[in-house]
Amino acid sequence: MAHPLVICLAGAGSRSGRPLDVFRTVLTYLKVxxxxxxxxxxxxxxxxxxxxxxxxYDAIDSTASLADVTSNVARCLQWFRxxxxxxxxxxxxxxxxxxxxxxxxGLSDFDSTWAQAAPALVTLASPLLGSDLDGIDALGAVAxxxxxxxxxxxxxxxxxxxxxxxDAARLRGAGVRLVTLAAEDDAVVTPEDxxxxxxxxxxxxxILRPKRQVGATYLENVLGHGAxxxxxACWRHVLTALGPAE
Length: 246
Fold this sequence. Notes:
44% of the residues lie in helices and 12% in strands. The protein has helices spanning 18-22, 24-34, 66-84, 95-110, 114-117, 136-139, 141-144, 146-155, 158-174, 191-194, 218-221, 232-242, and strands spanning 5-9, 41-43, 88-93, 120-124, 177-183, 205-208. It is globular.
């Protein structure tokens, strides 16, 4: 059986190349402990061709409106499914997790086979329930783009947050392994913003306490956003959620 294809997506303000850099240590762990190979990992994209094929993207593409971001990512997933013939495992950090979650939920509304096509989704520090974007002065235009405004509105909209929780329950009910991870000291995306606990005995939402990295960026070292992918506990949760490659 072919290995699954792990699709990685980074956050607002990112550009092509950033997803594999963000998840570099996570992917190394998956190769060592989960028997994945380098060609099992690909980047999603916020910019696509007419066919849905992922294209090179820049910061302007990853700070478009949440509707545009989600639409492009959904079509990108459709392209990967159509052209690879492999199961798709989804791995998103920050906005990347929101885009993958919303895209998969929308695709599943129209085609129930998506739960089998993309049976695992892990989000890291993703504002699934919106965010009031603490630290916006430090993030500047990255946080203040169209998608930042949309996520701020989501955080203030009880109906929208209820819809997100219902989508999560529906995906899990269809068989998708949805795991959400948050960092305790993240000032940009708090655990309250990021976690979608599951009903039942199996835990699916985790608060971790990653150590700050020497020489890390202000976003990571002071605001605590971006530290999760460097945490060995995070690596283990990702592997548990995705499972070994074969």
